[in-house]
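Structure tokens please, single chain.
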Amino acid sequence: MKAAEKSLVYDMLKKISAATIGYESAAFAGRPEFADDPETPAVLPQAQNFSQAPSAPSQAQEGAAPLSGALSDSAPAGVLPAGASIDSIAQKIASCSRCPLCQTRKNVVPGEGVQNPLVLVIGEGPGADEDEQGRPFVGKAGQLLDKMLAAINLSRQKNCFIANVVKCRPPMNRDPAPQEAAACRSFLDAQIHVLKPKMILAVGRVALQNLLDTSIGINKMRGQFIDFKGIPFMATYHPSALLREESLKRPAWEDLKAFKQRLLQIAPDYDK
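Here you go.
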């Protein structure tokens, strides 16, 4: 193999690792010097199969000091450390510089709510008010979202966690670019894994399409229950859309009533 080919493989593995665990692993710190293989090489050892999961840690590794909630750069791809928490994920988000949004943000907006939520609410991204305060859904749309949730006995103070597809504000409140959403996706996946919500409510087209990796619009998908990694998932209109178009409030209310009925099947006493 030529040195240039080895370099390409190294870069590909580095990107895959970072996209999977949400940060750059220490295993890829620095850059090795690559050389061309000889034209008539001796018998080479069996190549590593990168599609296989990393081997289990040794007993000495298992006995190492705990991570105190911090995400470790040495964690295997796709595996969260035992001490991972919402707070430790938020710390990683705060130092993230994986896409251009970090250059224009005032504050990251990792999310807000209870640690063991019945419902995870997911929007598209922070707006101006959220960027100022570092909190999700605090502007006019956020105030309406709080009222929507309260109508079915949900709240961020009691039984919900609210997050976004991207954790930094896109300039001029534009939709997140695909590469921006991809850069943030592992953080959202980690939050879902740690929070283990009973149900997910996606608000708006951007959240729906990014979470389900689909181009189908919100009008066709809203109000339907979908299995998302074993979690009942529904999408409805974004509160900002309801502020712009009054006619959407009725179908959004019907979505919320159906969402409540499914939640009552899972947690019959939640609204008492």
